[in-house]
Model the fold of this input.
Amino acid sequence: MEKETLEIIKNNLTAEKEKLENELKGFTHKDEAINDNFKSDWPEYGSSDEENAAEVSEYGDRLSIEHTLEEQLRDVKTALANIEAGKYGICKYCGNPIEEKRLLARPASSSCVECKKKLKGEA
Done:
């Protein structure tokens, strides 16, 4: 992979990392006990039954979003670490290079298209 392309990907990953961290800051706080983990904040709407039900519903939604964002953030951080270690762009399943077009489209990819298809049962 060309150095310029790798720099573009690194910049995109860094921007994505900041975006994900900012999204998480909007409704979570860092978990001091577990590295790279966040805890959703409990919404406070009031004390009526309807407000309590809305709090429970909102909290469930927040947990789901939190887990998705945490997973995406871990993938981005792993990709950035792999760039620094000189291991970026290698499929974790077959060890072959990941297609440059795939990495430009989805910089946090850790598998080639062929292996991803096999994992999804499409190949």
